[in-house]
């Protein structure tokens, strides 16, 4: 399965496309440069015309190159057209501002209403999900399960699903068995059981900043304080700050989105993950890892996880299919390491078990090759979208607007010039039926006033581009 | 819908059967008494032979009467064959014994494994559930829902389901709208959100005693203390003790199973419910009502709820379809009264939303007449089973064994002679592949050593009777 993606396997066209992509990213090939003809590719690489065409088609889809009739292929994208990446965040530590509940509910009251404000969300549009195949899976699940799924599931969760999660964990070079895994009602529910297992009211938890408001709200609901850590839009949490937090012994747990942080899109390099786990072990502070978007990577390989480097069971690795298959199924999981008994008890005591039928459906979906082939398409679409968004931001947003450059996931972080307040801008945009997630809801402190999170997990079309253009113009008029 | 059940409506045969049943219960008709002939019934009530036959068939099914060939109908059941009801429980107050986790997991580790130890459970057997109709409902739900249910549901929950719950609440003379209701992942999950909304770690919650171990475990997981209240096997919680608990202001909330308490089967009379709500209002202590089995009544009418008498929003009424349709769907709900905002936030923060597809399936099931016709069959079967269990206990268990006489639900409470320790008995029974729930797991105190809970929510057949007989003989040998 992985071979196809690494380019070292069967798909020669991907290897060729990868080489050209790298040259574009490195600026060796610049916007407008003419690319080798198909015939040249064929003779240089010893491949068929079809393979050469596939490579160029792949790059075209990614918006990296374009065809000009009767002329050939040209580089469309170059670094110059991509907005600058924001700096590392600099939160000031623990603060008592609290999250703006009102603002969050204003932005999300229409959740589930039909997605007419998709830029604000952080889940892929229905059109990107394999709905027909999932429906077929539901039918098969009613046949496979005892009593068609009316009976209680085991407390640990559906065994088929747990086996598949363990099998998939191989892709991130993580050795797990189904005994290590407990299913949950989505990823946030997994984080909830983890936090309830390793913290008590009044404790402090360290998180990246900015960070998904759902995690901030959960912490607040549990009476926890949040220590917000400086985070870089590409490499994730600042390790010095992380160690500082653990060292002073005031942090009872850390909660990191290791791959494609929401809202930044940052991804911790492997060595940082390893170092973070070593620090967690050194200071004996549980590390809860939110890896909900890890399967949606744009690079050649599934990024590793902190769990990959976990020797002692100090990492509680959480995931779900809410960013890839079906948020409404509420299927998530956790591999809680040495905290398994506690987490299992939390699940049992708060909800007995999970929904049998949706777990079985996802389990069988993962068992076949359908998940991998769906993911391949999804990654391809989202990567293309991300590049299109970057282009649109460069084209339409105020000068000096910065934007993160996610290598996976479905959201990016935009930093507008400091004179623009995105809460004001949100009101103006809403009047035109455009929504986004204002920066203020991703922190408990008084910061990120000029920032916003944009969702690129939707179909790119004329409307999407028009919305981004209108949003940019509104911002410029400020 | 309700008319059919009250006997005042279309079904004359039920009215006739009801009159005879009452005479049997009152001991006006005694075991072995001959009943009026079909012809007499026809002329006395002015009904057809078919109607008269239906009435007798109904009573036969309930094990109350029997046919003797060439002779007629005779009373089979009489009060004499029914074991005595245990006395009101007398827990000593708050205790620190804690629940025997080990014993609970020993009894329940096989939950979901295929029900080979059904006497220990408290859910109806798969055979009693409308599986084929639910499967059809799942298919319809994939067609009715946006994106076939892959998308997030609203935080409040599926609207069709909430409307139906509000409509059904009419049966207990409770006026609710769908705006009053929040769906949850089963009833225990509803209780969890309620407790998290109205209590904090260290608070005390008043409950009936004995009480479902799930509720005790949930309270322990939340760091709450439990005040166990004296409870009568027929009329439920002792109101004087209840008032005492509320008066001393040390109780932050109460949690009552108003209808068909698990494990006792007790049902608070309407006037007691009303009085309990008045006390809750007087002392301003939220009353969380677990009404999970309220629809499984054996009498003519759906019993009312505490919520029926709630004027001020102090009652948080919780329910689910886990005892009637599909425990594995994890569909439950709460009408949290004045605590709605808090409870909704808990749901949102801990799990975002519920599973879309199972909620829609249950919503549409409740919308048609299928739920009522299923319930009618289920109640009939369970009532018959309860009577058969009573008979078997009288026939096979040690003399002086007492047993509760539930007027609904699917469990009853057995009190063996005091020299019998049901934890020892459990071990011996297990060796013969018989299981039950030992009394000790229904309290945090050192009591109920001679008690057990039995599940009659299964198909009555030769094996069931043989298991009860074997269990009785093991107990006698003690």
Topology overview:
Two copies of one chain form a homodimer.
Chain A: H1 2-6, H2 12-25, H3 38-45, H4 49-61, E1 65-68, E2 72-75, H5 101-108, H6 131-144, H7 159-169, E3 182-184, H8 187-198, E4 204-208, H9 213-221, E5 225-229, E6 231-232, E7 236-237, H10 239-247, E8 251-256, H11 270-283, E9 287-290, E10 315-320, E11 332-335, H12 340-351, H13 356-367, H14 370-396, E12 402-403, E13 411-415, H15 422-431, E14 437-438, E15 451-455, H16 462-477
Parallel strand pairs in A: 4-5, 4-8, 8-9, 9-10
Antiparallel strand pairs in A: 1-2, 3-11, 6-7, 10-11, 12-13, 13-15, 14-15
Helix pairs in contact in A: 2-4, 3-4, 6-13, 7-13, 8-9, 8-12, 10-11, 14-16
Write up what this structure looks like.
2 copies of one chain form a homodimer. By secondary structure, chain A is an alpha/beta fold. Chain A folds into 3 domains: 2-81, Winged helix-like DNA-binding domain superfamily/Winged helix DNA-binding domain (Arc Repressor Mutant, subunit A, Orthogonal Bundle); 101-127 and 372-477, Aspartate Aminotransferase, domain 1; 148-368, Type I PLP-dependent aspartate aminotransferase-like (Major domain) (Aspartate Aminotransferase, domain 2). Chain A has 16 helices and 15 strands. Chain A has helices at residues 2-6, 12-25, 38-45, 49-61, 101-108, 131-144, 159-169, 187-198, 213-221, 239-247, 270-283, 340-351, 356-367, 370-396, 422-431, 462-477; strands at 65-68, 72-75, 182-184, 204-208, 225-229, 231-232, 236-237, 251-256, 287-290, 315-320, 332-335, 402-403, 411-415, 437-438, 451-455. In chain A, the strands form 4 sheets. A 7-stranded mixed β-sheet of chain A has the order 3-11-10-9-8-4-5, with helices on both faces. A 4-stranded antiparallel β-sheet of chain A has the order 12-13-15-14. In chain A, strand 1 (65-68) and strand 2 (72-75) form a beta hairpin. In chain A, helix 7 (159-169) packs across helix 13 (356-367) and helix 14 runs parallel beside helix 16 (462-477). The longest helix of chain A is centred in the last third of the chain and has 27 residues, at 370-396. The radius of gyration of chain A is 22 Å and the shape is globular. Mean pLDDT of chain A is 90; it is low at 1-9.
């Amino acid at each position: 399965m992985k071979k196809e993606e690494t380019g070292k396997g069967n798909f020669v066209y991907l290897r060729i496309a990868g080489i050209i992509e790298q040259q574009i990213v490195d600026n060796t090939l610049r916007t407008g440069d003419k690319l080798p003809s198909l015939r040249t590719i064929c003779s240089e690489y010893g491949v068929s015309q079809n393979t050469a065409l596939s490579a160029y088609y792949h790059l075209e889809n990614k918006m990296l190159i374009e065809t000009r009739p009767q002329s050939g292929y040209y580089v469309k994208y170059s670094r110059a057209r991509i907005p600058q990446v924001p700096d590392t965040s600099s939160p000031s530590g623990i603060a008592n501002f609290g999250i703006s509940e009102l603002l969050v509910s204003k932005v999300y009251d229409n959740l589930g209403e039909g997605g007419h404000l998709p830029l604000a969300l952080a889940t892929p549009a229905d059109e990107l999900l394999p709905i027909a195949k999932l429906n077929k899976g539901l039918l098969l699940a009613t046949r496979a399960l005892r009593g068609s799924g009316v009976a209680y599931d085991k407390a640990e969760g559906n065994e088929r699903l747990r086996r598949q999660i363990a099998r998939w964990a191989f892709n991130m070079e993580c050795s797990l068995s189904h005994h290590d895994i407990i299913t949950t009602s989505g990823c946030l529910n997994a984080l909830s059981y983890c936090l309830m297992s390793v913290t008590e009211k009044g404790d402090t938890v360290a998180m990246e900043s900015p960070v998904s408001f759902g995690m901030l709200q959960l912490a607040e609901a549990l009476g926890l304080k949040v220590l917000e850590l400086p985070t870089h839009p590409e490499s994730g949490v600042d390790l010095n700050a992380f160690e500082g937090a653990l060292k002073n012994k005031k942090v009872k747990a850390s909660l990191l989105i290791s791959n494609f942080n929401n809202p930044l899109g940052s991804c911790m390099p492997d060595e940082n993950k390893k170092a973070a786990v070593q620090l967690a072990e050194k200071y004996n502070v549980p590390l809860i890892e939110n890896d909900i978007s890890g399967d949606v990577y744009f690079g050649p390989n599934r990024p590793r996880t902190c769990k990959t480097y976990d020797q002692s069971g100090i990492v509680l690795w959480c995931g779900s299919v809410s960013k890839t298959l079906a948020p409404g199924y509420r299927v998530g999981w956790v591999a809680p390491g040495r905290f398994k008994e506690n987490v299992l008890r939390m699940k049992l005591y708060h909800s007995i078990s999970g929904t049998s039928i949706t777990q079985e459906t996802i389990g069988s979906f993962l068992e076949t090759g359908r998940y991998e082939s769906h993911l391949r398409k999804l990654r391809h679409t989202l990567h293309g979208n991300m590049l299109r968004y970057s282009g649109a931001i460069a084209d339409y947003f105020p000068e000096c607007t910065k934007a993160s450059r996610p290598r996976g996931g479905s959201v990016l972080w935009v930093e507008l010039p400091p004179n623009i307040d995105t809460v004001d801008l949100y009101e103006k945009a809403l009047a035109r039926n455009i929504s986004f997630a204002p920066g203020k809801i991703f922190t408990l402190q008084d910061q990120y006033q000029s920032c916003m999170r944009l969702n690129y997990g939707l179909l790119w079309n004329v409307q999407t581009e028009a919305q981004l253009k209108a949003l940019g113009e509104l911002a410029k008029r400020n």
